[in-house]
Amino acid sequence: MGNTRPLCTATAAAAGCSHCGLMGLATPSGSGSSVWCAFCHRLTRIERQRGVGKGDSATTVALAVTSPPRSLTLSAGREIPASYPKIRGKKRALLVGVSYRGTAHELKGTVNDVKAMRRLLCDKFGFPGDCILELTEKEMDPSRVPTRQNLLLAMRWLTEGCAPGDSLVFLFCGHGVQEVDLKDDEVDGYNEALCPVDFEQRGVILDDEINESVVRPLGRGVKLHAVMDTCHSGTIIDLPYLCRLSRTGYWQWENHYPGGTGKRPNGGLVISISSCRDDQKSADTSGFPESESIGAMMDSFIAAVEAEPGTTYGRLLSAMRTRIRDGHGSRLLPGRLGSYVRRMIPPSGVQEPQLCSSEMFDIYRKPFLL
User: Domain Peptidase C14 caspase spans what residues (predicted)?
Assistant: First the structure.
């Protein structure tokens, strides 16, 4: 992969055109400036990102292109690779773990997260192993390396040809960022985005693009669970309803797109479980040897599912939050993992797993089933 430039610059920086992808545009250090792309002859506005990365391994401020979201033209004209799994049965999964090997943003636990999720899907929920597509930097097949182009193609693979009764899972473990929202459709004024392995060359994948790829295509009777272990991931696939804990101690739904239907699926059901709020960072275990690493969110998710088969969404969310919170001072995240999480995130900033959905339901009654 080679080394990439740091995410933080004090003076001028090189950025990429969000329209054509040309890299090396010179950008001034101040925010709110614009540059002219000599290749596609379009104006690109430059803003400072609110946050970058997962854990302390990439917590610097970055310069980011914040022009209107890209369409999916990069993948629309490309065929899904023939090496991707041929679907049989009613279950399929896309598992993505980005390590950013050889860069300043390297993560060590993401491949282990993918392996752990594969075991859970196959052993507990009956997913066929040959209907699971993995994108990691350890793959020998170039089409399975988690580049921006490959990730967009893989999301198409996940949703293409779905029929009523299908159950889909999308896991992403890696870095996440926020960018200024220019469409005025985000409550907090920021878009969330995933960082593929080549994000510094090809750009991030905005929440609008994720929603367009894996949410809106889903027809009636199709169910998708997205498990997002990345910073700033609370509403990262732009689902309308966010579940929050009220002052009385009960979960209740908030509508983030009142009156709007454009970001909902085409009759299907989409539920996301993410590692933290949009304004939070997620703890990674990059301080461990690679063989021992696993993200705090994935640890809490798998432990909660395995501890109580058939648990409800409400109990799952509460168990995940309890395990992560207790990692700051009790026995539930013992030893090196608990110590690392406590060191990475101060008690006042403990990451809080989030639940979003395309439709409201009783989280205390609905069983968690993949």
Answer: 90-358
